[in-house]
Known about the structure:
Layout: E1 2-10, E2 21-30, E3 33-42, H1 51-57, H2 70-81, E4 85-88, H3 91-105, H4 112-115, E5 118-120, H5 121-128, H6 136-143, H7 155-171, E6 176-177, E7 190-192, E8 196-197, H8 208-225, H9 230-237
Helix pairs in contact: 6-7
Amino acid sequence: MRQIVLDTETTGLEVRQGHRLIEIACVEMVERRLTGRHYQTYLNPDRAIDEGAREVTGIADEFLLDKPRFHEIVDEFLAFIDGAELIIHNAAFDVGFIDAELARAGEQFGRLRDRNSVLDTLAMARERYPGQRNSLDALCKRLGVDNSARDLHGGLIDAQLLADVYLAMTSGQVVLDLGFEGKADSGVRAVIAPVVLARRPRVLRANEQETGAHLQRLDALDKSAGGQSVWRKQESES
């Protein structure tokens, strides 16, 4: 199965107010393994960036003046994500902005969900961790994903972190790092980066209180079974 972890940066929060994309970034996974292939581009939005967005992303209006417009990269972007399941955090936000750009580029491009299935990791996190903060930073902290390199919001680093978070949420798979070293002003769109092991899996051991509760539960199972339960047997053999 091919999956694309996708993130965008924008000039502001409201697509209905005419805000535009300024960055699209994707990392590829095949059979739940990061391949090292990624796609990234900055975009000229033909409008000013809101001050709040500028502070969050660190992207200045001047930096985007020589960058391509969405209609100039739409074909290569769609070719990269073609046929893949898209993994997006707060998918409604990103999909709304991409659909608006697709509509500007031409009706022949349709809508994103016409081309790709979309998995929203924010909805997944809210279901798994109800009542808790489920921002990308909060999930990184909860799942042991190293986000120390995330000084600012950037599409490529956020997509990489989201891939790690998704793998940790769904299987506890070892966190992988794509080792991106491109500077923000590179303007590079489609590149290949090696996959390297960033850290060893964490081993969580039960504390004294948890161990005591576990033993009490085994005692109750033994009593219910009228002897040594299958769970006690398995523990004694392990």
